[in-house]
Amino acid sequence: MKALKKILKILAMIVLIAAVFLSLYLPPLATSRPPVGNEYALLECQLFLRAATFTKTNSHFFEFSKLSSEERHRALIMTLYLDLLVKTNFAWADNSNHEIVAVCPHEFGNMPRPMLLNLYHKNRAHAVGYSDGTAGLISLTEFKNLNLSSFVSAANLATNSEFNIFTK
Question: What is the DSSP secondary structure assignment for residue 46, as one 8-state letter?
């Protein structure tokens, strides 16, 4: 009888520990909120790349200056909240040989999401879009070493009078 009580106590403790662990671990994994930080920056990079991909013709090059006004508007309208830095001319590439063509100048620390399992550690990073159509994160060191001379602010491109994005 004593052995049965000990087993029940151990089982009750295991269930209690599991309940506490799951109550702390599962809520941060819920995705019912809008994207924030790097989640949003990655989304903006992907939207810019998707809009640029729609403008692909038989050429392997993306040239912003050769886009129609509607295509320019589509490529830039979703990148204005975080003001991405984008390349206006680049060659589309495959996964093995890609370059950064869009970068968020703001760093965020919410991916992977800080939670109990990683001791609420924040990994500061910048969101980027690559010429193969993918998006990812780069470290602060990689961002500092990135040559930004060929990048242009998406907001500066969008203030062109033909877009009327910022006018009523």
Answer: H
DSSP per-residue codes, 75-98? HHGGGTTTT-EE-SEEE---TTS-
CA dist list (Å): 117 to 24, 123, 129: 9, 14, 28
As given in the structure block, the two tokens for residue 106 are: 């703001």
Which amino acid, 105?
P
- For residue 168, the number of C-alpha atoms closer than 13 Å in the C-beta half-sphere is 0
Q: How far is it, in rounded angstroms, from Cα 67 to Cα 7?
A: 72
Q: In the chain, what is the greatest distance between 2 CA atoms, to the nearest angstrom? A: 85
- My answer on whether omega of the bond before 34 falls inside 30° of 0, hence cis, is no
Which stretches within the chain are classed as H helix? Answer: 2-25, 38-54, 69-76, 140-145, 154-158
130 Rama class: left (phi>0) / alpha (psi -120 to 50) / beta:
beta
Q: Report the mean per-residue pLDDT for the chain.
A: 78
pLDDT digits (tens, 9 = 90+) for 33-75: 666 677 888 888 888 888 888 776 667 788 887 777 777 777 7
For position 129, what pLDDT does the model report?
92
